[in-house]
Amino acid sequence: MKIENKNNKTNNPSPFRAGANKLSTHHLLGIKDLTVSDIELIFKTADNFKDIINRPIKKVPSLRDITIANLFFESSTRTRVSFELAEKRLSADVINFSSSGSSVKKGETLIDTVNNILAMKVDMVVMRHPAPGAAHFLSKNVNAKIVNAGDGTHEHPTQALLDAYSIRQKFGKVKGKKVVIVGDILHSRVALSNIYCLKKLGAEVMVCGPTTLIPKYIDSLGVKVENNLRKALEWCDVANMLRIQLERQDIKYFPSLREYSMQFGLNRALLDSLKKEIIIMHPGPINRGVEITSDVADSKQSIILEQVENGVAIRMAVLYLLAGRQEEN
User: Fold this and answer.
1) Span of 38-42, 114-118, 120-124, 266-270 with lowest mean pLDDT
2) I need a labelling partner for 309 at 20 to 30 A (CA). Which of 108, 160, 177, 255 fits?
3) Among 128, 145, 243, 282, which one carries the catalytic annotation?
4) What would the mean pLDDT of 251-264 be, rounded to a whole number?
5) What's this model's pTM, rounded to 2 decimal places?
6) In CATH terms, are 15-156+309-328 and 157-304 the same topology?
C-alpha cells in the first residue's frame, strides 16, 4: 500500500478514495469488534507509517481535511501525547479537550459535551472515559467516528494493538508465542484488550497475580492462570508487567506494596536466574520498584521504549483507516 509523501502534491492523498483496503468497522471501540484481517491491515499500515516517522520529513497529508477532537475525561500522558502526535503526523487539525475546567464540572452530560464539539465540524473523536462502555454509548448517539482510548476497566484497544505489534516486530509473528500478563488483571483494561488481541492472533496467554486480582470470569477467556511468578516466567516468551491500579481499588487486595513486590515484582536477579531470555514489556506508567525494577525496565530485554514508538505508528494507522471508512459514508 502506497502512502503519499508530503512533497507529492495531489488532491487525492488517501488511497481509500479509490476503494483500497478498509476496516470492517466504522469505529474502534474494542478489540472484540475487530477481525483478524482488520488487525493485520492495521499492522501492515503501521509498517508504512513506521518508515515515514523515521524519515527526516515525518508528516504526510493523509488527514489534512480531517478534524479530530481528543476528549480525555481521565488523566493521561502517554496515550494522549501519542494520539496527538499521530494526528499531527497525518496533518489532521487537532482539538484537545480536558474535563477539568470544562462544562462537565457544571453538570453537562457527555452527549451534550460531544455534540457541542461536533457542532464545530469535528470528524473524529478520540475519547478516554472512566465509565466502561462510554465509547460504545457515544458511537450510538453522535455522528462521528469514535476511537476508544480507554474506558474504565473495560478495554484499551490501541494499547493491545501496539503491544501485539511490538511482539510481532520482535519475533516476526505473534502466533504460537507464549505471553504472560502479570499484575492487576482485575482492574486492567490493558489486560482484557491484550487477551482478546493475542488470542485472535494465535498466541498462548497466561495471567499471573494475586488470586484477589484475578477476575472470576478469566477461565471463560481461554487463558491459563498462574499465581507463582517464577513458574509464569519459566513458561513464557514475553512478560507484560502491569502496574497496580490503586486509584481503582476501593478495598485492599493485598497486605502492602512491599509484599506485592516481593511476590510479583520482577527484578534483575529473578530475570537472570531463568534458563532462557524473555522479552519484557510494560504499558506504562511504570511504578519502578513495585512491579518492575529499574535495572529490568532499562535492560536490553526490555522493549518498553519500542512500545512507545510503535504506539504512534499504530494510532496513525487506526486513524488513517477509520478516515477511509468515513469517506465512504
Assistant:
1) 114-118
2) 177
3) 128
4) 76
5) 0.89
6) yes
Q: Is 168 a catalytic residue?
A: no
- In Å, how far from its chain's centre is CA 159? 1
Mention the CATH class of domain 157-304: alpha beta
**pLDDT tens-digit map of 29-43:** 999 999 999 999 999
Domain boundaries, the chain: 15-156+309-328, 157-304
Alpha carbon distance 278, 233 (integer Å): 8
Select which of 45, 67, 79, 113 is catalytic.
79
Is 156 one of the catalytic residues?
A: yes
Chain segment 131-148, per-residue pLDDT in tens: 999 999 999 988 899 999
Instruction: Identify whether 80 is a catalytic site residue.
Output: no
Catalytic residue check, 325 = no
Q: Which of 22, 58, 59, 78 is catalytic?
A: 78
pLDDT of residue 162 exceeding 60? yes
Fold for domain 15-156+309-328?
A: Rossmann fold (3.40.50)
Q: Is pLDDT larger for residue 317 or for residue 13?
A: 317
Say whether 293 is catalytic: no
Catalytic residue among 50, 80, 136, 156: 156
Beta strands in the chain (DSSP E): 67-72, 93-98, 124-129, 145-151, 178-182, 204-208, 224-226, 238-241, 279-281
